[in-house]
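Hi R.,

Here's the chain you asked about this morning:
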Amino acid sequence: MTYEIIRRVWRVSAVLLLTFGVAAPIPAAEPDSRVAKGEAAPSGGNEPPAARSYGIAQVELINQQVRRGWADHELTPSAAAADGEWCRRVFLDILGRIPTVEELDAFVADYAPDKKARLVDRLISDEYVDEYASNWATLWTNILIGRSGGTERMTRTIATA
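And the predicted structure, written out as tokens:
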């Protein structure tokens, strides 16, 4: 059960980061009843196109907060990334590396409508568990301890010294 919750949180985080490029704060106050029921927020006037909420109320709440931040700062979202660019971004965000030529070609050649969700699921699954764990352990170690290193190059330098 705990693994499934963590997996869902990381998937939502990955989709949020890759869709918007930012993390939005979640307000302490309860969301309005429309969001709690998973309904779309009312659109007013000149708002950017609504991002998919995947039927998850928390994702819809985050989408609302991001849209509100855009409106407050008079920003508009960038155009959607091409498949190759999106694939590169998700590999960098989740595994800390770019995809191999084979991984990229396989993703671009896939025309299924759910290919992005399947790629995120694959990158956080057992197939990539070592890379995923290493990347996120390094990121959190650097954040929590305040280091600026911890990459493979740094590890090799220390090992050979």
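The helical segments are 2-20, 33-36, 57-72, 83-95, 101-109, 115-123, 129-145, 152-160.

Let me know if you need anything else.
M.
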